[in-house]
């Protein structure tokens, strides 16, 4: 499933040495470009910008690092920009409205292209603004975190949080292109690199057991930020995601597999307050919980749970949930999950490493027992 | 193009005597049901509700009149509701968030059906909330104003206003059904009935000259709220709209014809402050302006402009714009129109009564002359 670096086959030219994948969605198909130095290459944008106006959306952490390079690459266009405060706690309707303010104050038309320069929060908000502005304008994802490069920038999920639930307000809106410049990972804090690796591991666990082997063998190169290893991890993650999204764009079925660890993870994020744990950290602990529940149900060997724990811990990720939530609180937080159907919770669980299923067909007592053990481990009893 | 009242042909049963039209959009096709007493008929909802949960969204004017009847019709379901303040000035992100608050506080799942009970503002906001909640849930339109029955409830345009532009934030999201109960028009203030008739006239002017003849002949019956005349006007309007929407759902081309009078009208609404003039009133004056510009360009006979003026004035609608805007202000307000492409304004103009075109190919001097005449008529000079 790996492929050697290659120049673009068909379509627009890309920077020499860039890896290129296609997300196959008919009229909404688009490329993912992966490589070093892409954000400063005009060729990575020009084929995907229809009009003359672009609005670059970034945040106050990323803009000082990369906005100049992006502006130089877009110099032939009419460039506008809006810089948001950095952080998941700003991923809300009020901050979204600042993007609409900029679009309208500068009278940008329906042929504007929004360019999301930043991590997952910027991408989700800029993409949602593009989905809603004049009922839909183009956008390009330029993810600058590992998590955004391997996950949130691909597949068209956009949106904001609500005080009562994460990502509860949003739209499916596919970008025109994803430009993943692996050079931008050099400025990423260690903790955020690890959080991105949690989503990388996820692809292996749900559908690509060979990738799990490769990740175990590549731990040191990844943590040392070896350029080839990172590009390989990004490409292979995106290839897995692109295949799943192409088969089920609107999450009628198998796309939900991409939520391994996320129902538990969202409960952790909401329970502690968004931003306390990074999303990838919560997903890491959540994947271990999913594995442990799978083992309690007799679906997964205890050895496999241990292997998953070691892989994640080896990347510096948390493998136990925070000790602050009672079982009742867990269940309340999980009840708002988007996978709930007819009041019944569905979870992504593991039948094997590399074989995930979405199911409501599990013993609720096993879930409760897991949550009570989690709460008891912290010395707290349930209500 | 008229058709006799009929029961449903194929599909779900509807109340006896209901007229039924289909909006043909492939997998997203849906019926428009038109008739007396439909809102209290369970059969008008049940076939279009997938889960057990419904959220009725209404406002504090309509809810006291019709909410009980709707609740009785939905009695077999799990009913939730949210009542918004009435008025175009509440059509914003903050009020939209109250719908999300209700959906999340009551933990309604992805299989919830949102039911919009009210006029165009309620329909646009409830529809947009349904488009965004969990990235898209079902909704049913139950329009209670003539304007909503003939226009805003059909075709899937949803959204809210922004301080800098009307309907600038939104989504295309088709309802599962439209339930247009003509009995609800009995409680409509005269001014709102007339505002709805402006959109009815619009269908005739853009593509149905026989309908213009019929409207001229039916003026007294419509103003007297004759049930058959109103049902005929609603059905024929919806048939025209359904045909246009089926041919061009996302407004890549001819759907823009439905905006006859709207670029001028939106400028009137924004220039005076939303809510000062009703939308239909602004569209009526805007259609006359479009007709006058068409005549200045030599595209439309002066007699036809007079005929349009008389038809609209006969329904009690304004046929001259408000005297408060300078030509510069008009142009600034019109520049934010969604039909602007590459910085160039496009307008819907008339080649004949019943023959509209969308075009940027007009002499800007003619537009300016029209606007200056409009401003001069009020004794104000341009800057």
From TrEMBL, chains A, B:
Cofactor(s) it depends on: Co(2+); Zn(2+); NAD(+)
This enzyme's EC code(s): 4.2.3.4
Uppermost EC category: lyase
Pathway(s): Metabolic intermediate biosynthesis; chorismate biosynthesis; chorismate from D-erythrose 4-phosphate and phosphoenolpyruvate: step 2/7
Taxonomy, superkingdom: Bacteria
Amino acids binding Zn(2+): 199, 262, 279
Key words of the record: Amino-acid biosynthesis, Aromatic amino acid biosynthesis, Cobalt, Cytoplasm, Lyase, Metal-binding, NAD, Nucleotide-binding, Zinc
Domain 3-dehydroquinate synthase C-terminal: 196-340
Positions of the 3-dehydroquinate synthase N-terminal domain: 82-194
Described function: Catalyzes the conversion of 3-deoxy-D-arabino-heptulosonate 7-phosphate (DAHP) to dehydroquinate (DHQ).
Family the UniProt entry places it in: Belongs to the sugar phosphate cyclases superfamily. Dehydroquinate synthase family.
Protein name listed in UniProt: 3-dehydroquinate synthase
Organism: Thiohalocapsa halophila
